[in-house]
Amino acid sequence: MSRLRGHVSVSTASAFGLCAVLFLIATIHSSGFASGGNVRQLLVFSAFIGFAALGQTVVVLSGGLDLSVPWLMAFGGIQLSHWAGDGMPGGVAIALVVLAGAAIGLVNGVGVAWLRLPPIIMTLAMGGLVQAYLLSLGVLNTGGSGVPHAAEAAASDRIGPIPVVALVWLVVAIGIGIVLARSAAGRRVYAVGANDEVARLSGIDVGRVRLAAYALSGASAAFAGVILAGYVGSTYLDIGAPYLFASIAAVIVGGASIMGGRGTYWGTVAGALTLTVLSAMLPLFHLSDAGLKVVYGVVILAGVWLSQSGGALVARLRQRSSSPTPASPEVKSVEP
User: DSSP states of 137-171 as a string?
Assistant: First the structure.
């Protein structure tokens, strides 16, 4: 376990280090990149990815994958606008949307844990069902109306110089980090992701762990859709589309194993910040669209390699440095 923690800490540090390097490069190229206004924007956009990837992190740690995230984000924004347009108080509508997202995620969990459906198939199918439901509402673009003030305030207000959504994200990150690292529930998540059969034999209810993971993913994706709609001021069917890749990439760049059993939410935080800084800095270099995509992909691959291999590299270096130096052979003099 100590070796695992060491690998995770190095992977998280590698992701934060990559983010810092990218930020420094962008600042050298354009001094305005480090301005207070731009940093606040980066924090807000990172929070959108961070909330979308919150439940995704726990799902991946438990050995699964949730591809319904973008549709649940769209559900969060559109359903919120629909209920608020019917006169429901904004705070109540937000709470119900998050609960509904958790219920949808729970259905994903039932399909994966109890019906034994592959996570990719189950969550893609759920995404299609959610899309069909949203189409049936007939509210595909709110056109700047229907988003309650509570959602706009959560996404746009500040406490001093710091955006409220970034502060909320920080509190949530601390909470999730403590639960995963210090609680029995967190240990069960890691155990299920590392080897679900061994976890089952040790008395862990594997199905319940996966149900909880997918329910959390549904709730966090719906909440991400709420605050994204509040920031934009409207919502539409494809509002969550960019976050399918981002919610997974943030987790992997942050050092989590796609096979489960290894990673932290703080690594995901670092991954979200890295993706946001990278997306913001590339246009500064005036590359073509093709060039932007190539550089973006190369940097993401480098980040994944660094976070996944950094721990093993450090472990090997430590092993070499701690291994005893072989004693020099004693040379005996021979008397003539």
Answer: HT-SB-TT-S--HHHHHHHH-EETTEEHHHHHHHH
- Mapping DSSP onto H, E and C, the string for 174-231 reads HHHHHHHHHCHHHHHHHHHHHCHHHHHHCCCCHHHHHHHHHHHHHHHHHHHHHHHHHH
What is the number of structural domains in the chain? Answer: 1
Host domain of residue 83: 45-272
- Both tokens of residue 47? 């929070």
55 within a domain of the structure (yes/no): yes
Does 317 score more than 60 pLDDT? no
In a domain, residue 61? The reply is yes
- 250-301 pLDDT, tens digit each: 999 998 988 999 999 999 999 999 999 999 998 898 878 788 788 888 888 8
Report if residue 12 sits inside a domain: no
Residue type, 71: W
- Minimal CA–CA distance to 108: which of 175, 36, 180, 55? 55
Inside any domain, residue 263: yes
